[in-house]
Design goal:
- The chain is mainly α and 228 residues long.
- The chain has one domain.
- 71% of the residues lie in helices and 4% in strands.
- The protein is built from nine helices and two strands.
- A two-stranded parallel ribbon has the order 1-2.
- Helix 2 packs parallel to helix 7 and helix 3 packs antiparallel against helix 4.
- The termini are far apart.
Amino acid sequence: MKKKVFYTELSYVFGIIALAIGVALMERADFGMSMVVAPAYLLHLKISQYLPFFSFGMAEYTLQAVLIIALMLIVRKFRFSYLFSFVTAVWYGFALDGCIYLVSFIPDGGIVSRVAFFIGGMLFCSCGVSLVFHTYISPEAYELFVKEISLKFSLNITKVKWIYDITSTLVAVAMSFIFFGLWHFEGVKLGTVICALVNGLIIGAFSKLFEKTFVFKDGLKLRPLFEK
């Protein structure tokens, strides 16, 4: 079967939208967020108690801005891709807030619907990550940080990703205790553990499916800009 062309720019757009839908569904399920977004979610929960307008999406691009600044201080350089990563974070943040608003209209069917929300959220998130992996456009700061640190210090990217995920989880647990009291878990729950165990496998499955079906090709001549 002849593979169809899938433009990498569309892979970027659809990937961010899929991530936003996935996180919105997981937030609705309330079984715990993925270890990557849990710190931003906790920041949103705490600050929104005093500033109701401070949304989950705003927490995302605020935290990612801090992460990008930390990255520049560590690697001691600035690249256009770093700046555009913040653009990606803002666009994702707006998409996330929009998806949370739309998901709120879905009727609540109790534990069955929460499980469905969680499973759907994991699938959308994994699909989104896989799509973002197939584009040259700057990803969110989380993925960019892992990639650039591994390149800077010639480290295995899988190990750096693992260390980052573990660190993010520990930070989220600490934030939960500090913000909401000792042994009171918010954001980091059973679903967080499940995500940590199966996300990699699901992302890999989506990548194999996409690569079996499509040829990823640039539609615009912008790749050199993001490689500077």
